[in-house]
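Researcher: Predict the fold of DZANK-type domain-containing protein.
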Amino acid sequence: MITTMTYYCEKCGHKLEENERQCAFCGTVQKRFSDQDYETKKCKKCGKDIYVNANFCPYCGTDQAILNLNKDLKHDEIDQKTTPNSNLTSEQKLAQGLMNTNFDDQDSLNDFMKQMQDAGIKVRVIKPEEKNETGKPGLITSTKLFFRDMFKVNKRLGINDFWWGFLGFFLIYMVVVMLISELLPIFKIPVTMKLLIKISTGGAIVFRLGMLTAIIRRLHDIQMPAWFAVLWFIPIAQLFIWFICMMGPRLDNNPYTFNVEDWKKRQNKF
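Model: Structure tokens for DZANK-type domain-containing protein follow.
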């Protein structure tokens, strides 16, 4: 059995075959096939040597402009030696900025971003809490968030919080339905067709309302039109909505956050 490795275009990040020398998407000729000696840098994820101007790692596909913000980066050491600051490479300036930045302070973080921009270094800072509001999504925490925000749409909902919350919401809905069906005979309440219709209608309204607002918040998270949520009421189109809800967040210039007040402030500016 012959296995082939997957590579990535160093410019656009699309997947390439092992022997594919030129990207079919952007037309870039891959430097890993060249016999010339190019200046290299370490990939921010896998640590392999890659072309210094590569946007993506050809081995793991990591975007080199993305900086995952975690506390371990604060303690990364840089060998500055006696090199003047003006002669530092882009990688050294980035590492130096990481060491001197207090990421818990927004002003310090903003200064770091400005310094990197002035140095011609494009970085994207992603805070862990930006992806999911609960920080650590789970059945209990995400379900609580699901119920708490049932009547809110002017915010966003992370992918993990959405699916855990949906699972918890659905389980609670089923438990309530079963409890009602068991309690009616105990309290000797006549089970008529009219009563069943009222109960099922009320439950359906609550369930659909919760799902509708959650889907709208999820659409905000991936920056897609909120009106797509109405497709969830169409049986065939529901598959399309479920597929969309599995997409990752799009945080660049996203007007929605986990705080409704942030959205209100933005609206007041206009």
